[in-house]
Amino acid sequence: MDCNPPSPHFRVSGTPNEHIQMNGEVMIDLVTGLHWQRCAAGLTGDSCLSGDFTPMTWTDALAYCEGLVLGGHDDWYLPDMHEAKSIYGTPLVPTGSLGSWNTEDEFWTSVSLSETRVRAITPLGNETRASTEPQSVRCVRRGFSGDAGAPGSRFINTLNAQPTVTDVITGLTWQGCYVGASGAKCTEGVATEFASADAAAGCESLEWDGRSDWRLPSQKELFSLLNVAGRDFEFPFSVVGLDETTYLRLNGLGLFGTWDGSLTGPNSQKKYPQVCVRYSD
Questions:
Q1: How confident is the model over 208-267, as pLDDT tens digits?
Q2: Which of 75, 103, 74 is nearest to 87 (CA)?
Q3: C-alpha to C-alpha distance for 163 and 240, rounded to whole angstroms
Q4: Within a 13 Å sphere around the CA of 29, how many CA atoms are in the beta-carbon half?
Q5: Domain residue spans in the chain?
Q6: Whole-angstrom Cα distance, residue 73 to residue 89?
Q7: DSSP codes, the chain
Q8: What's the half-sphere exposure (Cβ side, CA atoms, 13 Å) at 127?
Q9: φ, ψ (nearest 5 deg) of residue 113
Q10: How far apart (Å, rounded) are the C-alpha atoms in residues 81 and 6?
Q11: For residues 124 and 219, what is the distance between their CA atoms, to the nearest angstrom?
């Protein structure tokens, strides 16, 4: 497995996860296809309250997942950040599906920034930790999710008067310009800036490329566009004007920082431009 993959290899759901199937100590996500160790390392039981919670260093976590035999399978591994965000990001998986855990809990990912600095993930963002710090561990296996990468180009651009960008991996179609701007290079009109209370309505009222089912993206959906190792975009947002200094609103939960995918406070009065999303046909 690539420890620092540039993109997800599965479809992304922007709605609350009601697509979970439990199989003993394994949780199956029927959208992404990923199979998850239900309880954090050391814990067992339906509510993950039995056993002894066992945080580990990053090196030990890699070895633990590689050696794990669970649910009749031995191909477990430490998840990358896109995989981890699929269950820890907002919206979260249903309460109880992964036992009881706090939003402050940090779980190791396989993404390393150096020999000693590694990325851990929480529902509210991402942290860089020393690899020798003990953190929570939960392993994953591919299940029926896709292989890494996409056949040919990952993104399909329609550079017309109302451009869109379709992601063939995640199944999402993105508005190619900020709301208010248009044209093949987004040079027509002026991008509208929204306060927190108005952003959702700005997307929901959008008529773009013959479609009216646009909405604010979720944290998971925006995170799918990040190259988490290189801290830049895989998505061809250069026409839109998005860069690592941009903030975008998402589902009323606050602001998404495009530098590293973290969430910040809602900052309800300050206005920002917005890009909307819909499920691909």
A1: 999 999 998 887 888 887 766 555 555 655 555 555 556 666 655 556 655 555 656 655
A2: 103
A3: 10
A4: 29
A5: 20-141, 155-279
A6: 26
A7: --SS-SS-SS----S----EEEETTEEEETTT--EEESSPTTEESTTS-EE----B-HHHHHHHHHH--BTTB---B---HHHHHHHHSSSPPPTBBTBS--TT--EEEEEESSSSEEEEEETTEEEEEETTS-BB---EE-TTPPPSS-SS-SEEEE-SSS-EEEETTTTEEEESS-TTEESTTS-EE-PPEE-HHHHHHHHHT--BTTB---BPPPHHHHHTTEETTTTEESS-TTTTT--TT-EEE-TTS-EEETTT--EE---SSS-EE---EEE--
A8: 17
A9: -95, -20
A10: 10
A11: 9
Kindly report the number of other CB atoms within 10 A of residue 32's CB atom.
28
**Residue range 78-99, pLDDT digits in tens:** 998 888 888 876 555 655 566 6
**Could you tell me which residues come within 8 angstroms of residue 112 by beta carbon, excluding any fewer than 6 positions away?**
3, 4, 58, 118, 119, 131
User: Token digits for 161?
Assistant: 């008067």
> pTM for this structure?
0.81
Nearest residue to 215 (alpha-carbon basis) of 256, 252, 168: 252
d(CA 251, CA 219): 8
Decide if domain 20-141 falls under CATH 1.10.3720.10: no
Relative to beta strand 193-194, strand 188-189 is: unpaired
* Alpha carbon distance, N-terminus to C-terminus of the chain: 30
119 within 8 A of 81, measured Cβ to Cβ: yes
